[in-house]
Amino acid sequence: MYAGYRAALGRRLMRVPLREEEAMNVSAFHVRNGIFYVLVVLFAVIVAGMGDVPVEVPFSVIAVLAIVFGLLGLVLVILAARLKAPRIEKTFFILTGASAAGTPIFAVLHNLVYGLFIIWFGEGFWETHTGGDEPVFFILAVLVCPALFLIGTVGSIVLIVKSRIAKQATVA
User: Fold this and answer.
1) pTM higher than 0.85, yes or no?
2) Domain ranges for the chain
């Protein structure tokens, strides 16, 4: 665990005033973790909304949630990269944020490339060359990014739980 973060946490528990940089660091960690939790909930809602649920979710709601999901992923990447944290912690949070940001980007690129190739090469281009659809960005948006998001999420949750256990052990 980052030593400055641990020192700031210890001072906070002993009711000693935090230095300004420590207070910024502690709040930034909380913001990063909060954004991470919101991303996990959004991912679950988006996946549930696209599946077979008894309630019909309009496409516009899914689209707005996907845009928010991508933007929060970008914010998570920036926060994780700027915070002074252990390398493995940064890696998992950046992986989670980058895959969250990549999912809607690759979905839009899939549709953009599909449409542009039809405009440039004619209506029958995809049927004659790939069997009906643009595969690269589709696979990235539907398989690769969600899988990387799950890997990053599990790793981040393990590290968060591990740091909370370590924090409780130092308090007791």
Assistant:
1) no
2) 3-171
